[in-house]
Specification:
about 425 residues, alpha/beta, Rossmann fold, Arc Repressor Mutant, subunit A, 9-stranded mixed β-sheet
Length: about 425
Amino acid sequence: MTAPLERATKEAAPVTLPAQADPLANLKSFCGVADAPESQEDTTDIPVCRSLADLTTPLPEKDNPAALFRNGWLRKGGGAFLVSTSGTGKSVWTVQAALLWAQGLPAFGIVPVRPLKIGIVQAEDDDEEMVKFRNNITDGLVEQAGLDLGQVEAAARSGVYLFNPVGKVGVAFIEYLGKILETFPELDLLIVNPLQSYFGGDISRNAEISRFLRGWLDPLMKPNKVGVLFVHHTNKPPNAKERTGWGADAFASYIGAGGAEIVNWARAVLALMPCENDSGLFRLTAAKRGQRLGWKDAAGERTDVRFIAHSKNRIFWRDATPEESATAQASAGGKKTPPDPQVDAERIAEILRERAQPLTDARSLAEQLFHRTRGRKAFELLKAKPEALGLSLVQARYKGCMFIGVRAQAESVANDYDAKMCKTTDTKG
């Protein structure tokens, strides 16, 4: 039998898209949705109906092949993001995490349910850099974390595999992932580093993001085929005056470059941001689904923040000491000021400018982000003066339901709502 690593080398030949009318024909075949012969009835769009009672209780995580990380932080079929600024060490973070997860060990407080088979799809680091990362991380895990050298080397050999799809973007990249999963069905998790290298479109356009993630990638991942962790870059940092709390507040999940659809699609989001007053110290914020990780602070209270640091003598991430964590936490706490409803309203408006919503949903969003009292204050300000924040209130015909967003989007959503409700009413009548 050919070893997985040997197969990985052999399959690295480029995959070319044949000239054809349907550029997604190969992708459809990978996803098992190839067009039926003309002589047969096309049943691909017939809805599959199950009652709520038909759903079976899942197996315990330790026995569930779809489970990847504890408490359902990420399962096969789901996607997550690690978002950070340029030059922080994202690639090293992913290699170090992969080597630990491949042994069934926690990495940065994220605990796998079992040893995982992991594929790293990356475009930024050549072989020389990857060897440097591997050797430095191995030394760090042995010397600083106390792991067995043979165990780490075994994980590198039979648990972590590398793929380098040079020149593959858009649908060609999705096809390449399909080939990976065809050839290596044993893979549990794909780490894609970074998203922009393979997206092949305008990352600011939600429609293009949705097509890539929901239309093309989801059929490869679901149901329960593989999990995907994307490495992603932040937007351009704000100026120093506006940088306080950037990537560490309730909107940490939205610091990644591009449209809000990225966060909407993701099951989990991590933000890795430098601590401004502590060189080499970084704040890891579980910005989405953080409660699933079970992190605790020094006082034993639930938290969605951990502090990690660059090792001083090698390329390696280490946990911050209790003293470093306390200092960083106190420094961040000292910068806090009483909440400003105007600032909070602007932050809510940022989301609404990306996607119009019913007014009731906007209120729920405000309360979710800022808790009830603070959120309601921001919402009332937003509702009273939407134009000042680049938004409009649009009333639907059906029962006068209100929608808020950029005017064109809000009108479109309101019209869709009216059409849906009228159709429902006609059907019932």
